[in-house]
Every structure is written in C-alpha cells, then in structure tokens.
Amino acid sequence: MLGKLTTYLRMAGHDVEYVHDLEVEDDAEVRQLVEGSGRTLVTRDTDLAEKVDDSVLLESRDVEDQVREVWENGVDPRLTEPSRCSRCNGALKRDDGSGPDDVDESWRCIGCSQVYWRGSHWRDVSERVEDVVDG
Length: 135
Ligand SMILES: [Zn+2]
Description:
Helix content: 25-40%
Largest sheet: 3 strands, antiparallel
Shape: globular
Number of domains: 1
Oligomer: single chain
Number of strands: 5
Bound molecules: zinc ion
Strand content: 5-15%
Structural class: alpha+beta
Distance between the termini: 25 Å
Number of helices: 5
C-alpha cells in the first residue's frame, strides 16, 4: 500500500522497512517489530496507528500528498546522495564506473548488488519532493 512512499524515502536515505515485504500480518507482531527496533510506524491503518506508540497516520493515497504528510511529521524527504537501496533497504557504497558510460558517479547496494546513479528517475523524484517541500 505504501510501496511508492517506501521507495521515495529510501531514495532520500532513510532506513525504511516495508511491512509488506516482511511476512508480518498480525498487528501485535507489527507493534513488536516497530517498538523493538525504535522505528516509527508509517501507516494508513487507523487501528494499527492507535496500537503503536510512535506512529504517523497517513490520510492520503497519493504519494506526493503522503510525502507532504511525513514532511509535516518531521521526516525530511529531500534527495541528496544515494545511500539506501530502494529495492532491499541495504546500504549503498560508492562504486564509480558501474553505471552507464555517460555517468561519473554510481553506487552499489551491499545487500543485493543493485547499481544506482542519479538518472531520470532520481531527478523526477527529486523534483516532485522539492515541489512538496517548497509548497
Ligand atoms: Zn539492495
């Protein structure tokens, strides 16, 4: 449900686990996971948000509005330098020369080896997020 927002926040360098990927179904399990890790829960589920101490309840379905909602809750969504894998949440390390020939800077995920660079998707997301923050 929040897959797109997860991608955006990882691109902004945040350490984000997506509950959907973790085979956790039950609210009590989600609560344990969040509170045991010191993370903040971001959810659209009102019941779940009420059960977890540190949670942000999102109202919107639209990713740009969701970005605005997390921004208003103190999470900076702006993109600076790639540092998190948007697929697996692994840390990225600098690996110049792995991207396309016309790209100087690239990064590689230490978890799944995915290569990243500041391409058109990066610029597109960055512009959308900047619009939200400036607006
Ligand atoms: Zn990865």
